[in-house]
């Protein structure tokens, strides 16, 4: 079916790889690129949801879409993925490092293992993606774009998301460093910083040292304060495509991402 939507055919012929594509913002982003005519590689550690995203991407308008089951924190698995994608589908034109996990809890109640888990996925997953696919883009010499999903938590301090916020602050900085390094080669790098978005991440986030229900209520209340009920992942996906088209560096999405002072 023909590409539709605001960016119809804007990404025709391009290869777009999205991690964490099985759910939420990643799935919406895969769909938006599919609608814009891109060939899509949907990567998720959950095989079924990645397969579903690929299947739906084809229905929406992607000329081709594949699912790859990979844990982004697994260096060897990511190396294999990069080799396979280059060999079978081609060099990625747009990479969206979106896979991430949540963790709520006070700093002092967060165990070393919890810190490691969050940094492994949210930070190392992005590092692996940037290194491996960024290298392929640079070697090909035809430009490209990398979008990393950071968060408003990257620059808004929080009493209840210390590990998560720290991982996202690192993603924001690495994105800006890589952007500076690759600018001369026509490769753009963007960091997307959404505020509260309605996805599974809050329901699947682990809670440590805090009452989960109370924490969820608190986050909802904070979101309500900013008038953010029901901010859909599709709007974040739109911001991702816009960031690529306009080559934007840092993109706050939602009101508290633009104006807030405390995440939670
Ligand atoms: P989600 O939980 O709906 O989707 C995350 C997807 O990533 C899931 O399909 C999950 O299976 C996958 N995933 C998790 N760990 C993985 C791993 N190690 N390897 C491969 N896949 C993995 O969450 P959502 O909200 O769509 O999150 C996407 C990104 O957006 C995350 O990086 C998150 O931190 C970020 N974000 C989300 C916000 C929100 O309020 N929902 C706000 C700001 C940023």
TrEMBL record:
Transmembrane annotation, as ranges: none
GO molecular function: oxidoreductase activity
Domain Ketoreductase: 14-195
UniProt keyword list: Oxidoreductase
Entry superkingdom: Bacteria
Similarity section: Belongs to the short-chain dehydrogenases/reductases (SDR) family.
Annotated protein name in UniProt: SDR family oxidoreductase
Organism: Streptomyces liliifuscus
Lineage, highest ranks first: Bacteria, Bacillati, Actinomycetota, Actinomycetes, Kitasatosporales
